[in-house]
Design goal:
Largest sheet: 7 strands, mixed
Structural class: alpha/beta
CATH class of the largest domain: Alpha Beta
CATH architecture of the largest domain: 3-Layer(aba) Sandwich
Shape: globular
Helix content: 40-55%
CATH topology of the largest domain: Glycerol-3-phosphate (1)-acyltransferase
Strand order of the largest sheet: 1-8-7-2-5-3-4
C-alpha cells in the first residue's frame, strides 16, 4: 500500500514534475510474470527513477545498514526502504552474493520484477564496468527473461560522493528481453555464466552509450582512490621540496 502511495501520489509525481524523466522501450517490460531488470548503476537514485514508468512493483536489494540503524532514524529508514520494495543484504560477508540471490529467487517465484545491478556497485566515473555473474546464475536457476536497462543522467542529479547535484532530465531505457533457456542446467559452468553476463553487459552498453571497461568496478574504484592518494602525497612532497629550495641560504 505504501509503495503505491509513494509511487503514484507522493514521490513519483514529484520526481516527474521536477526532473521530467524520459523512458524508452517500456513495451519490452512484461505487464505480468517474473523478469530480471539488469541495469547499469550511476547513482544512489537509480532505483528511484527506474520503476517510475512501470505499472508494477519492482524490488531491489539494499545494504543491510539501511534496515539495522538504531533509533528513530533507523526505524524511519527501515520503514521507508521496506515500503518501496527494498530487501536487505549484508554486503560485507562472504555469503552476501548468495543472500542476494536467495531474495531474488523468492521475489521472482512470486511472479514479480527484480532489479539488479550486475556491476555490484555504483560507477565512480560514469563508465560501465565488468558484470558479476550472479545475474547469469539467477537467470538460469529461475528460467526468467532478463531485461537490459540503462539509466542516463542520474549521476548528474546525484553524483558519486554527493547527496545532490543539479536538476536534469534523466532517461531510462529498456532493451528487448534476453532469453537464456538454451543454457538451462548449466548454471554451474563458469564459462557459460561469464558468457551470459558479458552478453547482458553488452546490451546495457548499447543502451547507455557508456565506455566499457573490462574490470570490476570495485577494483577500478580502489585503483582510482590509490592513484589520488599517491598524487596528493607527490604534491605535498613537491611542495615541501619547493619550500626547501626557496629558503634563503646563509651567506
Amino acid at each position: 500500500m505504501i509503495y503505491w502511495f509513494l509511487k503514484y501520489l507522493s514521490l513519483g509525481p514529484l520526481f516527474k514534475v521536477v526532473f521530467r524523466p524520459r523512458c524508452e522501450g517500456l513495451e519490452n517490460v512484461p505487464v505480468e510474470g517474473p523478469a530480471i531488470i539488469a541495469s547499469n548503476h550511476l547513482s544512489y537514485m537509480d532505483w528511484l527513477f527506474t520503476p517510475l514508468f512501470i505499472n508494477r512493483k519492482m524490488t531491489f536489494v539494499a545494504k543491510a545498514e539501511y534496515f539495522t540503524t538504531p533509533g528513530i532514524k533507523g526505524w524511519l529508514q527501515k520503514t521507508f526502504f521496506s515500503s518501496v520494495g527494498q530487501v536487505p543484504i549484508d554486503r560485507s560477508g562472504a555469503s552476501a552474493a548468495e543472500g542476494a540471490l536467495k531474495s531474488a529467487r523468492r521475489v521472482l517465484s512470486e511472479g514479480e520484477l527484480f532489479g539488479i545491478y550486475p556491476e555490484g556497485t555504483r560507477s565512480h566515473d560514469g563508465k560501465l564496468y565488468r558484470g558479476k555473474t550472479g545475474v547469469a546464475r539467477l537467470a538460469l536457476e529461475t528460467g526468467v527473461p532478463v531485461i537490459p536497462c540503462a539509466v542516463i543522467g542520474t549521476d548528474v542529479v546525484a553524483p558519486p560522493g554527493k547527496k545532490f547535484g543539479r536538476v536534469t532530465q534523466p532517461t531510462v531505457k529498456f532493451g528487448k528481453p534476453l532469453d537464456f533457456s538454451r543454457y538451462q542446467g548449466m548454471e554451474n559452468d563458469r564459462y557459460i555464466l561469464r558468457s551470459i553476463t558479458d552478453e547482458i553487459m553488452y546490451e546495457i552498453m548499447m543502451l547507455s552509450g557508456q565506455e566499457y571497461v573490462d574490470k570490476y568496478a570495485t577494483k577500478a574504484k580502489e585503483e582510482s582512490n590509490r592513484a589520488k592518494l599517491d598524487a596528493r602525497r607527490a604534491a605535498r612532497e613537491a611542495e615541501k621540496q619547493q619550500r626547501v629550495s626557496d629558503t634563503p641560504k646563509a651567506s
